[in-house]
Design brief:
The protein has about 230 residues and is an alpha/beta fold. It is about 45% helix and about 20% strand. The chain binds calcium ion (CA).
Length: about 230
Amino acid sequence: MSKKVLVIEDEIKILEMIKKYLEKEMFIVTTAIDGKQGLEKALTELPNLIVLDLMLPGMSGLDVCREIRKKNKTPIIMVTAKSQEVDKLVGLELGADDYITKPFSLAELTARIKAVLRRTGNAEDIIENKITRGNLRLDLDKCELFVNDVLVSLTPTEMNILAVLMRNPGRVYSRLQLLELATHDAYEGYERSIDTHMSNIRKKVEVDPASPQQLITVYGVGYKFKE
Ligand code: CA
């Protein structure tokens, strides 16, 4: 499956160039133009890797890095200018995985991204693709869901939706977010198809699908997995 890269960069021209190039390299690219938006996307869209510019308006790249690390270990490549040697070191101390200095070539950035993904990929997959919550055990590598140790069959879309929700118990996702995260293909107007998927998943995992205890509807917003 294509890896998803979040690029956080306030210079739109550079942002667009990176996006175009990475898409040609078969990455799924999502973008943010300031630190606050970047942090939000880092925590909700769960990219496989983050390219994080150090100099951002408002919340700096270092603050974004610090906040992300409080929540997860998503690989981060920091983008620094030559004059920011000290900040670069702080970034690595805060848990950034690598850095690249401006100006850089897109080929070099891509090589760094692939290297960091290779270096961090396996460990992350083990954590990410096997998720256990309560009586549910999901193994995305094998496309298997066990409910109370009984194998239950799900469609790939159902499995992806469940994985998104189970990875972040308590976090509320809108229908559009779920559609995008589970199928990488979101069209406004199709959000309601999530309700059908959700109803089918509930029939398979809930004791009483009419009164779900795990896959909770948040009225007016979307869905969450119980905390
Ligand atoms: Ca900048």
